[in-house]
TrEMBL record:
Bias (Low complexity) ranges: 1-16
Family according to the record: Belongs to the short-chain dehydrogenases/reductases (SDR) family.
Cross-referenced Gene3D superfamilies: NAD(P)-binding Rossmann-like Domain (3.40.50.720)
InterPro entries: NAD(P)-bd_dom_sf, Sc_DH/Rdtase_CS, SDR_fam
Name of the protein in its database record: Uncharacterized protein
Protein source organism: Carpinus fangiana
SUPFAM superfamilies hit by this protein: NAD(P)-binding Rossmann-fold domains
Keywords of the record: Oxidoreductase
Top-rank taxon, per record: Eukaryota
Chain intervals for the UniProt region annotation (Disordered): 1-27, 58-85
Recorded GO MF terms: oxidoreductase activity, acting on NAD(P)H, oxygen as acceptor; oxidoreductase activity, acting on the CH-OH group of donors, NAD or NADP as acceptor
């Protein structure tokens, strides 16, 4: 035990010494020195993410390089010296730099409200330029708050484009225009979706077809339109399709066969799209949330208020979730933090489906 520990310490110390060697600096991933608004100009520095990942796994090609992660802000440097407050600035060169998304362009369908908007805000915080695509003529009032925050305090932009994911031709045009403008496309969160609670014996073919048109065909057309641009601009993009735990289970007390079938379709689409697009370095994964209290679910609570408690009791944590509990997952799946993950599902459901 003692030997192991001391050998581990020696190796850690060796790694620290090597990391400090200036000879590492000129390797791949060098970025230009520039003024940081939080501190003085820094000398050219080592890009930890680029240097640690083999070149083949990173974005290659004609899309312009993004800016690297920033140095720790002045306050963090001070905290490191004084130890009085925790130095917790993530996404800097020393704090999980693989989550840095500065200059990357990310689309979020269904981003006018709900889960999509909250995940859009997470992308903005990581530095990305975000386009919310949604069928609503006007996004929710919170959208304006996030848009203003992006411009005034995050140094990036949140845009809105009205689209209906059932209109494949328009989707193609809007997404192509965005990619042409930035000469790149790095990510897509396909969150646009609908829910309908109707017993299977009463489901009309029209309603079932609409469910599949939005949740399956719409998600597929959005992903394909995005992938075409990622291929055109040679961006190793990441696509996240919002599925659901309902794609794997039948929900107790929630009668929505077509919705569950649509989410099962999304789970399978992900595996096939990942298989087809892996050769283009495009990753495709699904995120399967449990119950989230968004407008979609509030509508279901209107007629059945008891569900707020009952649904929580069906999982291991004894509660339903908030949209903010999926921010980290979005940042992980879209950024280089998940660079070796594709064709997979990330289920975040309070343990609902594990019981
Ligand atoms: N809320 C939950 O409990 C829960 C659980 C698991 C998965 N999900 C999934 O998460 C995603 C987001 O759901 P939410 O809870 O935020 O719902 P929400 O209704 O608040 O948001 C969905 C968004 O999609 C948009 N949309 C719907 N149809 C569209 C279309 N044809 N074209 C473009 N935009 C369209 C809506 O306008 C809305 O802004 C959905 O795919 C949903 O199925 C939700």
């Amino acid at each position: 035990m003692v030997m192991l520990k001391s050998s581990a310490m020696r190796s850690a110390s060796r790694m620290a010494t090597q990391a400090a060697k200036p000879s590492l600096a000129p390797r791949v991933g060098m970025v230009q020195a520039r003024h940081n608004s939080n501190g003085p100009a820094k000398s050219p520095r080592y890009n930890a993410v680029s240097a640690q990942y083999p070149v083949e796994t990173r974005k290659q090609g004609m899309a312009a390089e993004t800016r690297g992660p920033p140095q720790p802000p002045q306050k963090e440097s001070l905290n490191l010296e004084t130890g009085k407050e925790a130095p917790t600035f993530l996404g800097t060169t020393k704090r999980l730099p693989e989550f840095n998304m500065a200059d990357k362009v990310v689309l979020v369908s269904g981003g006018a409200r709900g889960l999509g908007l909250v995940q859009a805000e997470a992308m903005l915080e990581a530095g990305a330029i975000v386009y919310a695509l949604d069928r609503l003529p006007e996004p929710s009032p919170y959208f304006q708050v996030v848009q203003q925050r992006a411009a005034e305090t995050l140094g990036t932009q949140l845009h809105y484009r009205q689209i209906d994911v059932r209109d494949a031709a328009n989707l193609e045009k809007v997404i192509a225009d965005i990619a042409d403008q930035h000469q790149r496309l790095d990510g897509l969160i396909a969150a646009a979706g609908i829910q309908q609670e109707t017993p299977a014996l009463e489901y009309t073919a029209e309603d079932a077809n609409n469910m599949f048109a939005v949740n399956i065909t719409g998600a597929m057309m959005t992903a394909s339109a995005a992938a075409r641009q990622m291929i055109k601009y040679e961006c190793a993009g990441s696509i996240v399709m919002i599925a659901s735990m309902s794609g794997t289970i039948a929900n107790r007390g929630l009668i929505c066969s077509a919705y569950n079938a649509s989410k099962a379709g999304v789970l399978q689409l992900c595996r096939n799209l990942a298989a087809e697009w892996g050769a283009h370095k495009i990753r495709v994964n699904t995120l399967s949330p449990g119950y989230i209290v968004t407008d979609m679910v509030e509508k279901l609570f209107e007629t059945h208020p008891e569900r707020r408690i009952e649904w929580g009791n069906q999982n291991m944590l004894g509660r339903v979730s908030a949209p903010a509990e999926y921010r980290g997952a979005a940042a992980f799946l879209i950024s280089e933090a998940s660079s070796y993950m594709t064709g997979a599902d990330l289920r975040i459901d309070g343990g609902h489906a594990a019981w």
